[in-house]
Amino acid sequence: MRRVILAIDEGTTNVKSLLLNPQGEVIGKGMASLSIRFPAAGLVEQDPFEIIEKMKASITLAIDSVEDDVAIDAVAISNQRESVVLWERSTGKPLTQVMSWQCRRSESLCDTLRQDQTFSRYVQDATGLVLDPMFPATKVSMALEQIPDGHVRAERGEICVGTVNSWMIWNMTQDVFVTDASNAARTQLYNIGEQGWDKTILARLGIASETLPEVVSSSQVVGMTKTFGSLKSGIPIASQIGDSHAALFGHGGYKAGVVKATYGTGSSVMAAMPTLPSIRHEISTTIAWQDDTLFYGLEGNITHTGSAIDWARRMLGVESIEAMCQLAGQADPNHSVFFVPALSGLGAPYWDLEATGVFCGLKSSTERADIARSAFESVIFQVADVFNVISDELPEKIEYLCVDGGPTQNDWLMQAQADLLGVTIRRGEVAEVSAVGAGLLAGLAIGWWQSKDELEDLENTFTLFSPRQDKHEYWQDRYQLWSLAIKKARLAF
């Protein structure tokens, strides 16, 4: 019987389950897709029960993918961040849908709160996050207003407010209500300097502390499973961590000089630091993870990268991403088109909700291929915007930009990113880095490995994209023109 850690990565669009052996190798996989609902303009929701059922399905698929019998030593969890759900403590019945990180329902409340500049500044100093509907705080405040007797029930401790990891663990154990420091830090309710729920923010938003979970380490046994689909009772849940943080850990981000970029629907660029860095408006300061020590993180969240390519693909009437890549490859490298995909405003480093998407440089000679290529270029330019801010804050030289996510399989895109930044891009063979990172943290918690030094000895294979000096100058020239396009996107209509 093969000993494994079951690492569950619950994302926005699917749930993946991986089986990791003591050598850190992935020996089994399973995946189940998730649906997303858009019930009204600005509202984005998911079904909390569907998440649980798709977890069970992906676990079964992962176990069945291995011919030999497996003994699961521990469960590890990485999860989509900022998405939040409220449920009844006594029954586990959801009181809301999962309100997605993409949901903008609390935009008007954020606008009102930002008018109080003293409070707005306090929130950013305490949590490291700019007031924005992406974070759960304001959505939770509105949800409690809409639940009958919501505030009274919250004060009595009858309501649980949790990010998706908390919901997962609650259902797997049937009674444990916890979160880890990385997920707590993304709620905009957690004081990252004092490392506790912030009383000032809770009071202003009318959120009772009794609704919130206990904050624990990212690498710690928090409870045992009850029978859960294919999972037996009595398996320790040994890690939980936000997916972007988990990817950074999986890339070895606990070492100096490592920055990671996760490319997906949106993108995240993140670096870890052992001490609390300065709070900056352009990027978020957060907690990367907590194990035997606390690591802080600098992060920039980009709203539209993969989704920008897909949006442009649909507008051009191209059938598939593969066909979009082929079309973009036919473009003149010196074309004049720049696409700023501010389709719901701009995230880091601009945080401009009023910005609108624009195509700049259109001419009578512009071809469909030029527009297609501009969509791919918008990804590397947006990553560069955030990377440059983070690199200015780090005390050491950046050795690698470690990358993961579906778009990183595009070799042209990764080489262009390396050429633009002048930094080597390192892409691992295993795509599911978030799950692997959570699995490594779980292995440390149960004694599979005694220290992070041992993780360095595990087998890893990478593809490197080294920057080319002649192309660096070409991309820097185009990057300057991108900066002009950004200014046009930020002009108010």
* Strand order, sheet with most strands: 17-18-16-15-21-22-23
| Annotation field: number of helices | 16
CATH architecture of the largest domain: 2-Layer Sandwich
What general form does the structure show?
A: globular
Query: Can you summarize the main beta sheet?
Result: 7 strands, mixed
Give me the CATH fold name of the largest domain: Nucleotidyltransferase, domain 5
Alpha-carbon Rg, integer: 22 Å
Specify the helix fraction band. Answer: 25-40%
Keyword list:
493 residues; alpha+beta; Nucleotidyltransferase, domain 5; 7-stranded mixed sheet; 6-stranded mixed sheet; 23 strands; globular; ATP-binding; ATP:glycerol 3-phosphotransferase; ATPase_NBD; kinase
Topology:
Layout: E1 2-10, E2 14-20, E3 26-33, E4 45-46, H1 48-64, E5 70-79, E6 84-88, E7 98-99, H2 107-114, H3 117-127, H4 136-146, H5 150-155, E8 159-163, H6 164-173, E9 178-180, H7 181-184, E10 190-191, E11 196-197, H8 199-205, E12 214-216, E13 219-224, E14 236-242, H9 243-250, E15 258-263, E16 267-273, E17 284-290, E18 294-302, H10 306-316, H11 321-328, E19 338-340, E20 358-360, H12 368-393, E21 400-404, H13 411-421, E22 424-428, H14 433-445, H15 452-455, E23 462-465, H16 469-489
Parallel strand pairs: 1-5, 5-14, 9-12, 15-21, 21-22
Antiparallel strand pairs: 1-2, 2-3, 4-7, 6-8, 10-11, 13-14, 15-16, 16-18, 17-18, 19-20, 22-23
